[in-house]
Structure formats: C-alpha cells, structure tokens
C-alpha cells in the first residue's frame, strides 16, 4: 500500500526554506517535447558533454517513461538577485544555492520513505571535467541532477498552467526544480 505524503509535515518543512512557489503535480500529466531537446542540441554548449544533458540522459521516450513512472512530483522555484541579469557568470553563481535547496527537499522526501528522481537547473557543474563522453560513469550520481529541459520538460508551460511566476523582472532570477517521488 502506498503511503501518501503528509502534506502538513511537508508544509512545515518547506516553510523553513527560501522556496518562492511550489506546486504538487501528477507526473502522468506532464508532457515531454522534442522541441526542447532540439534547442539543447542547437544552442547549448553543454549538449553531449555531461551526464546531466542529452544524449547521456537517454532518448526522449526513455526520459518520458522515467517521469511517468513516478506517482507524484513537486515543482518549485527560488529567487536569486544579481546586480546585472546580463552577467551570465554572476547569474550562474547563484545557481548553487538553488541546487543545495533542491538537495534538501529531495532528502526530506527520502527520509519520509519515498524514492526520488530530481530534475533541476541547467546542466550539472559538480565536477570541473565530466566523465561523459569518455565512457566512465558519473563520479557523483547521487548529487547529479539532470536538467528539466534534458527530459523535454517545457517549464514555462507548466508554470503557466499552474499560475506560477516565471519572471519577476529587474535583476531577479527564478530557478526551477522538480522532484519526482514514489
């Protein structure tokens, strides 16, 4: 028998963290889109260079199957402020705090007895040099979170459907993660 997430305990836990917004989702209702991965291939320097990105994460069908195999998901955002949103280096430096937050939420769900699979921001940057595509396994599979887009997830569409904020304007950044759990 499945044990549902104790929403009160989750609310108490998450209230202690700088989560801007969150929504509980049914992963079976999530769509994956090839168009997102085409953008990855055409525009992202990390494509084909890390375990967190295509093609290392698997085919779109494999990624969709992985997502849809979970019973529940929580999508959440956190806010970062920078002096200049056009300064990519400064912007990316704020990502670590969101990744740490993501790890804390996943750890909470795991302590509650759930198996988790985490999709997060951009691509992994734990190691200075990724072992992909050298044929060696990931050095930190327990910490590496594939990016949402690597799995064909269109974050902006989910955010719109869930009536969440996608842009705050000014020099603020919203980072998003999704933790699937069962």
What is the compact description of this entry?
The chain has 182 residues and is α+β, with helices and mostly antiparallel strands.
Detailed description of the structure:
The chain is an alpha+beta fold. The chain is built from six helices and four strands. It has a four-stranded antiparallel sheet with strand order 1-2-4-3, with helices on one face. The termini are close together. The model has no long low-confidence stretch (mean pLDDT 91).
Query: Number of helical segments?
Result: 6
**Any idea what the shape is?**
globular
Q: What is the string of helix and strand elements?
A: HEHHEHHEHE
**Portion in helices:** 25-40%
Give the low-pLDDT segments: none
**What composes the largest sheet?**
4 strands, antiparallel
Structural class: alpha+beta
Q: What is the rounded Rg?
A: 16 Å
User: What's the end-to-end separation, in Å?
Assistant: 11 Å
Strands side by side in the biggest sheet: 1-2-4-3
Strand content: 15-25%
Count of distinct strands: 4
Average residue pLDDT: 91
Write the layout of secondary structure elements.
Elements: H1 7-14, E1 21-25, H2 34-43, H3 60-68, E2 72-81, H4 88-93, H5 95-111, E3 116-119, H6 155-161, E4 172-181
Antiparallel strand pairs: 1-2, 2-4, 3-4
């Amino acid at each position: 028998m499945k044990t549902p997430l104790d929403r009160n305990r989750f609310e108490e836990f998450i209230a202690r963290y700088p989560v801007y917004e969150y929504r509980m989702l049914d992963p079976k209702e999530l769509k994956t889109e090839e168009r997102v991965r085409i953008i990855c291939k055409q525009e992202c320097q990390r494509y084909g260079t890390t375990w967190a990105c295509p093609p290392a994460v698997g085919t779109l069908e494999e990624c969709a199957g992985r997502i849809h195999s979970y019973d529940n998901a929580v999508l959440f955002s956190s806010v970062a402020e920078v002096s200049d949103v056009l300064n990519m280096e400064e912007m990316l430096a704020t990502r670590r705090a969101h990744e740490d937050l993501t790890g804390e939420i996943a750890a909470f769900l795991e302590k509650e007895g759930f198996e988790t699979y985490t999709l997060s921001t951009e691509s992994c940057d734990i190691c200075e040099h990724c072992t992909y595509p050298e044929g060696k396994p990931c050095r930190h599979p327990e910490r590496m979170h594939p990016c949402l887009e690597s799995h064909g997830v269109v974050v902006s569409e989910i955010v719109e459907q869930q009536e969440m904020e996608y842009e705050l304007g000014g020099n603020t950044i919203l980072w998003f993660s999704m933790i699937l759990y069962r």
